[in-house]
Design a protein that fits this description.
Length: 555
């Protein structure tokens, strides 16, 4: 899978004491993070760490299309710096640079908004964001590093002068708001759905829900050999209808959108069939087939990778460090629970494989989970109570985003109070329908609940009247005509103008005989313009093009 252009998050964990052993530090990090790691469903790759030249721990995770993985990892790192307050200082980056500064850009000092000046100056320490300031003048005597500091010097500065480097409360609040309930709770990012699948797949998903990620990813990275596997579905046939089970599970929204967007269907060569689209279980069976197809491809591409932890003195040292930290919670060596904890530690230790050299499903975590799930399947095992009484599936209407919903999402994301500075088309239509007197419009919603400035509304009546005249076609007395040497064209122009003048004179005579006034026409035209503008739903269209051209010609 090509990862060169994919989004990623990169991080370094620096020990505050140079003598601190990196493998022991890695063991401490695993113990702190493990409660959040064992159930989280990664979009692509899992959280990883590895020692680098006994100087620091390093990790790089490709997050693909799901930026929430990036912020979940940032929340883990922030939590680590809080739980190990005097032991570590952390730097985190993504493909755009200093991600923490980018997120808090509206609350930074002016100098920190320059990427070159802020490079290697933002870190996590003791659960907070730290920003190493620069001196006001180059000649100032200060213990703070100048230019682009070395990471080791930056770490020492933060530890020694944390009261100076701690970022402002506004920056802290901005980052905390973006992290939300991470890493303790990420349920808001899950979409609960039903999947109708064979029992073996139900067992795989029940034992290792993280495998839903590589299964869905494979659907978007199919080659001709993968397609031939899906045509036959030999490893995961559908089987008799009575042997199918309905599984309910929460899938990250980004993955669910990918699953819904995949358009593969069963081939005649396989025994998989789907009901009609009107069937109540069509979506559950269709999604179940696609997950089965992804797992089918995984079985063909999965291969054994070297177990670097076997007979590895460094891994033995890592296990000893975990044991001293009570990672195994007093479990007896050799017991089932002990081996499960040891397996998780082994997978975490082995995650430093170059992620762009192996397929996603062959990363240590997914490879181990898939192998174990298939090996432990027992078709005689009865269904669990939670698989019998399923709660209703979530609505997936959020997949269909209209412009109004998008505006609301942007408003929530960027803390905008309302669209168009609090004034929208419906308010303007209401304004046109209000009664007025010498003091202005009474009871207008445009002024209710808002505080107007002392200068009132700035309104160019001549410009507005000129624009309306052009819409109404009443600007017929203008003498601003371009000269032409072609007398025939002038005569045609005069004739057309005479025809238009005669047409409007006849129209005016008809209006005099009716109860329709010029004000009624103006109001009707304005309402039609507003209605057309609203129907464009914020997109470019003929109405705003017409209005813009009128305003330009009138100015």
């Amino acid at each position: 899978m090509e990862r060169v252009s994919m989004s990623f998050v990169e991080y370094k964990i620096f020990p505050t004491q140079p003598s601190q052993d990196c493998l022991t530090l890695m063991a401490e990090c695993l113990k702190v993070c493990q409660p959040f790691l064992h159930k989280y469903i990664w979009h692509m790759e899992p959280f990883r760490l590895k020692p680098v030249q006994e100087e620091h721990l390093y990790g790089k995770v490709y997050v693909g299309d799901n930026v929430e993985d990036e912020w979940f990892i940032i929340s883990l790192l922030k939590y680590l710096s809080y739980q190990l307050p005097d032991s570590i200082v952390i730097r985190v980056l993504d493909e755009d640079g200093e991600i923490l500064l980018i997120e808090a850009a509206d609350h930074l000092p002016s100098w920190a908004q320059e990427p070159d000046l802020a490079e290697k100056r933002v870190y996590l320490y003791q659960g907070q964001v730290h920003l190493i300031p620069i001196s006001d003048r180059p000649s100032s005597l200060t213990p703070l590093p100048s230019g682009v500091p070395r990471e080791g010097d930056a770490v020492k500065t933060i530890v020694a002068f944390s009261h100076i480097t701690r970022a402002s409360p506004e920056v802290q609040e901005c980052i905390d708001r973006r992290l939300g309930s991470y890493p303790r709770d990420w349920s808001s990012e899950l979409h609960y759905c039903h999947l109708v699948v064979p029992k073996v797949i139900a067992h795989v998903l029940r034992e290792s829900p993280q495998l839903i990620s590589p299964a869905i990813q494979k659907l978007h990275d199919l080659d001709p050999q993968d397609s031939r596997m899906i045509q036959k579905m030999e490893r995961f046939p559908q089987g008799p209808e009575k042997d199918l089970v309905t599984v309910g599970m929460g899938i990250p929204r980004c993955l669910y959108a990918m699953l819904s967007g995949s358009k593969i269907f069963p081939y005649k060569k396989s025994d998989w069939t789907l009901p009609g689209a009107e069937d109540a279980q069509f979506k559950a069976k269709y999604h179940g087939f696609k997950v089965a197809a992804g797992l089918e491809v995984m079985t063909s591409t999965q291969r054994n990778i070297s177990h670097r932890s076997a007979n590895d003195p460094a891994f033995d040292k890592f296990l000893k460090a975990l044991n001293s930290l009570d990672y195994f919670q007093g479990l007896l060596p050799g017991s089932k629970e002990y081996e499960q904890f040891k397996g998780k530690a082994r997978d975490f230790y082995r995650q430093d494989h170059p992620c762009d050299e192996i397929e996603l499903e062959n990363t240590p975590l997914y490879s181990t989970l898939f192998t174990h799930a298939l090996a432990t399947f027992d078709p005689s095992t009865p269904m669990k109570p939670e698989d019998v009484a399923l709660k209703p599936a979530d609505s997936d209407n959020w997949l269909d985003i209209n412009p109004n919903v998008l505006d609301d999402l942007l408003a929530q994301r960027f803390l905008s109070k309302s669209r168009n500075d609090g004034t929208n088309i419906s308010d303007l239509e209401h304004f046109l329908q209000e009664s007025s007197d010498m003091k202005g419009v009474e009871g207008s919603r445009l002024t209710q609940g808002t505080k107007t400035n002392e200068g009132g509304i700035s309104f160019d009546s001549n410009l507005f009247e000129s624009a309306l005249d052009k819409v109404l076609g009443m600007n017929l007395d203008s003498t601003d005509h371009s000269d032409s040497d072609d007398s025939e064209s002038e005569r045609e122009h005069d004739a057309n103008e005479d025809d238009m003048r005669a047409y409007f004179e006849a129209l005016e005579d008809q209006l005099k005989e009716s109860n329709v006034t010029s004000d009624d026409l103006d109001l009707s035209v304005m309402k039609n313009l507003l209605s057309s503008l609203e129907n464009q739903e914020g997109f470019q269209g003929p109405t705003n093009t017409l209005i813009n051209s009128m305003l330009k010609e009138s100015s």
